[in-house]
């Protein structure tokens, strides 16, 4: 199944809020759901999916392997546990969530274990997340670029991650933008606000449309049904060249996610 370009993220969603967000999203028409082991909500995502009435084959489901499970003797078992929580036999995409802190587990070991998990039928595709260029090179050397479905990275108007995105594009690796609305910062941005007024759209819709036009997948999240519905309308919004360029100019290296175990960023 091909990854739908606009998906529903579940970062920070817990308990009933996670169930409701995914259930509302599926009812509204989302067919791409993104979760992760460390989010602690795989069970809730699975519950919402099972209760949605939407056929499993219609939903592109992503999860991510946490750093504690990156060793070859742990990865597949942890993915099987994720499948149990999600109530599915296979996810569509499994990512290495973060490179191993301090390179404790080599990239090649994790990627080869992930490829083996795909070959065993646990996941339809594999990929990476939060990988800078140097580690992307290691991942490609380990399994080949054609086996890496995406690199999921923080990407929004204030952090456009151009070196990583350009490298990925040249290698034929798709990019998924997480935190696409910059924790909501785009909502009060005067440049984006002015563009939104002219298109009779919301700042969120404008920002998502800008990212979608670049070919990225985007996975915004929300607990509000009206915002989930509004975000979907970004699929029908096309910005002109000048407006896209104005958003391009907002890049200031404003990274929002950089834990102490993060790799050396580009």
TrEMBL record:
GO MF assignments: methylglyoxal reductase (NADPH) (acetol producing) activity
Gene Ontology biological process terms from the UniProt entry: methylglyoxal catabolic process
Keywords carried by this UniProt record: NADP, Oxidoreductase
Boundaries of every NADP-dependent oxidoreductase domain copy: 6-251
UniProt cross-references to Pfam families, sorted A to Z: Aldo_ket_red
Active site (catalytic residues): 39
Enzyme Commission number(s): 1.1.1.346
Positions of the record's site feature: Lowers pKa of active site Tyr: 64
Signal peptide positions (record): none
Binding site for substrate: 97
Family: Belongs to the aldo/keto reductase family.
Classification via NCBIfam families: PRK11172.1
The name this protein goes by in its record: 2,5-didehydrogluconate reductase DkgB
Taxonomic classification: Bacteria, Pseudomonadati, Pseudomonadota, Betaproteobacteria, Burkholderiales
């Amino acid at each position: 199944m091909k990854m739908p370009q606009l998906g529903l993220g579940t970062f920070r969603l817990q308990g009933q809020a996670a169930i409701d967000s995914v259930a509302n999203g599926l009812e509204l028409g989302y067919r791409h759901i993104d979760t992760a082991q460390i989010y602690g909500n795989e069970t809730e995502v699975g519950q919402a999916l099972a209760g949605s009435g939407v056929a499993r084959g219609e939903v592109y489901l992503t999860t991510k392997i946490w750093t504690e499970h990156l060793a070859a003797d742990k990865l597949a078992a942890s993915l099987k546990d994720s499948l149990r929580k999600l109530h599915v036999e296979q996810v569509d995409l499994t990512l290495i969530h973060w490179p191993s802190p301090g390179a404790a587990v080599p990239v090649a070991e994790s990627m080869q274990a992930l490829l083996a998990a795909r070959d065993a039928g646990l996941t339809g595709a594999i990929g990476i997340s939060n990988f800078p260029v140097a580690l992307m090179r290691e991942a490609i050397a380990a399994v080949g670029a054609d086996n890496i479905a995406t690199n999921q990275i923080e990407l929004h108007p204030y952090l456009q991650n151009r070196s990583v995105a350009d490298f990925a594009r040249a290698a034929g690796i798709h990019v998924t933008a997480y935190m696409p609305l910059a924790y909501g910062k785009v909502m009060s941005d005067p440049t984006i606000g002015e563009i939104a007024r002219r298109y009779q759209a919301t700042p969120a819709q404008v920002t998502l449309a800008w990212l979608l036009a670049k070919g990225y997948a985007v996975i915004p999240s929300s607990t509000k049904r009206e915002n989930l519905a509004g975000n979907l309308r970004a699929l029908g919004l096309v910005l002109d060249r000048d407006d896209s360029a104005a958003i391009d100019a907002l890049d200031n290296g404003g990274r929002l996610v950089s834990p102490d175990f993060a790799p050396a960023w580009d």
